[in-house]
Design goal:
217 residues, mainly alpha, vacuole, transmembrane helix
């Protein structure tokens, strides 16, 4: 199995991730961990890209929508702003991840050449910049859809300003829990860190935009 490709596919197919995780845990319990130990650090690259992408899309889009909602009651303005944030965040994340992974590949290839280990190695074992970019942009889109769908379902202005942060809060907890669970990290700490960061971003954007809109302009 091509390790780099299967790892990135897991970021796109969350059901497959859960199934593989259950299988690995059951396998360890049955064999006592003697024959096959799971190295969770190997998940770091795709897990970082998936969690970072989802949270970036979620927080960026929600913050932009809350900022516009602080000065405009029109739902169309909020939705258009959120959609623009989705596209911008997805493109930014994809380009950033592509450049980052490509740099990693170049460094690894250079190191192999220096160590004279470049003979006979398989290129498929290296991470794929295109797959990393696609997975990251997809994760951003998934996260950004949460506040967009929440805003679309509510017409009343005041209710909308409560529903969007509520939906984002649930999503932040889920993303924080998922990242910690897949990486076998402390779940409570990871979820709380993601949640507080999201609240801070939305609160700052809403407050500053409202202040500028009502006083400075």
């Amino acid at each position: 199995m091509e390790h780099g490709q299967s790892a990135l596919r897991n970021t796109i197919e969350l059901d497959t991730i859960r199934a593989n995780t259950v299988y690995e845990n059951n396998n360890q319990q049955q064999k006592g961990g003697d024959n096959e130990d799971v190295d969770y650090t190997k998940r770091a690259q795709w897990l970082r890209a998936a969690v970072l992408g989802a949270n970036d899309g979620l927080i960026t889009t929600a913050s932009l929508m809350m900022g516009v909602g602080a000065v405009k009651q029109d739902v169309k303005a909020m939705i258009l702003t959120g959609f623009a944030g989705l596209v911008a965040a997805a493109c930014s994340m994809a380009i950033g991840e592509y450049v980052s992974v490509y740099s990693q590949v170049d460094i690894e290839l250079a190191q192999r050449k220096r160590d004279k280990k470049d003979k006979g190695f398989e290129g498929e074992s290296l991470p794929s910049p295109m797959q990393a970019a696609f997975a990251s942009s997809l994760a951003v889109a998934v996260g950004a859809m949460v506040p967009l769908l929440a805003a679309l379902c509510v017409k009343d202005y005041k209710v909308r300003l409560g529903v969007v942060p509520a939906a984002v809060t649930v999503a932040l907890v889920v993303f924080g829990w998922l990242g910690a669970y897949l990486g076998k990290a402390p779940i409570l700490r990871a979820s709380l860190r993601v949640l507080l960061g999201g609240w801070f971003a939305m609160g700052i954007t809403f407050g500053l935009t409202k202040f500028i809109g009502s006083r400075a302009l």
